[in-house]
Amino acid sequence: MYTVHLKTSTPYDILIGPGLIAQSGNLIGKVFSPCKAAVITDSNVHPLYAPTVMHSLSNAGFQPVEYVFPAGEQSKTLSTLSDILEFLAEHQLTRSDIVVALGGGVTGDMAGFAAAVYARGISFVQIPTTLLAAVDSSVGGKTAVDLKAGKNLAGAFHQPSLVLTDTDVIKALSDQLLSEGAGEVIKYGVLRDPELFSLMCEKDWKEHLAEIILRCVEIKKDVVSCDEYDNGIRKLLNLGHTFGHAIEKCSDFTVPHGFGVAIGMAIASGAAGKKDVCNRIIQANTNCGLPSSFDCEPSILAAAALTDKKRSGETIDLIFPEKIGSCYIKKTPVDQLPFLFETGLNTIKEILA
Ligand code: GLY
């Protein structure tokens, strides 16, 4: 088992290894005394892992209760959040009790936000069950729900007290879910790690999942420990996200987040005039079963990007690759967005022709 220690305002461990779901009660018991534990999960993950987690928590002396919501981004709303908060209140959770987020990015973001606001903040544990959540969203304390205007527009910074990543769970994922997570892994390669990037261009990348998760979490730890509240270098972790979120939104969320990030990175490199980097990102995307293009008018995509959180007045912080392993943040006037989408998508078209 690997342990990564993240020093934020409230420091915590990220444990990565096999069999952690079955040991979750004892592992959580090393951080919390027995208390009520509200396990929040979705309808896909519930039958697979909730019974094991509930049993393990009971055996370790916790009083677990479970809340299940319909799987999918369409559940990541204020309405589901409200239901979760009412559930916590009905079960009389207090500030000495905990929330356990068992699932992918939607579950972790929404259960984390519930923990951030319930009783003005209670502790929570992340148990990510997707590659995307394991390498990115379970670490660093960003919690949120979507608003009609855009993704993650209502949220809070609230660090988990423990992250348990069971590599057996990640290894059992479908090809589609592994591809979705690969979008974020390639992001970490483009940002900081040419070796990780090269691994994502190899046919056997899925045989190295534990090492891939460890490497991404180590990079995220380095970034988040310098800039917990996203005022500086943490913005780099948004590589591909502004372009990608616009694509997700314009597809009515039929394009999943990891796919949006993959296409978004290709657009960012094309828009920056880095055709060689764009070409390599497309190669990595293709190798990992990810798309690199999206058919939509640049002006429509640009309009969808205007509600992005990285916008401040008439500018937006965009992330562009310099080369594989190095990126930079550029404050960009929002009226350049249509041109950037167009240039990026045209570069991708030329490469794919
Ligand atoms: N997912 C980007 C971040 O945590 O900052």
What sort of overall outline do the alpha carbons produce when their principal axes are compared? Answer: globular
- Strand segment tally: 12
* Spatial gap, N to C terminus: 45 Å
Based on the structure given, which CATH architecture of the largest domain is correct? Answer: 3-Layer(aba) Sandwich
Structural class: alpha/beta
CATH class of the largest domain: Alpha Beta
Question: What is the strand arrangement across the widest sheet?
Answer: 1-2-9-6-5-3-4
Count of domains: 2
- Our estimate of the beta-strand percent is 15-25%
Mean model confidence by pLDDT: 97
Quick rundown:
This protein has 353 residues and is an alpha/beta fold. 46% of the residues lie in helices and 21% in strands.
Characterization of this structure:
By secondary structure, this protein is α/β, with parallel strands linked by helices. The longest helix has 18 residues, at 175-192. The protein has 14 helices and twelve strands. The strands form three sheets. The protein has a seven-stranded mixed sheet, sandwiched between helices. A three-stranded antiparallel sheet has the order 10-11-12. The chain has two domains: 2-171, 3-Layer(aba) Sandwich (Rossmann fold), CATH 3.40.50.1970; 227-352, Dehydroquinate synthase-like - alpha domain (Dehydroquinate synthase-like, alpha domain, Up-down Bundle), CATH 1.20.1090. The mean pLDDT is 97. α7 (175-192) packs parallel to α11 and α11 (257-271) packs antiparallel against α12. The site of glycine has 6 residues, from loops.
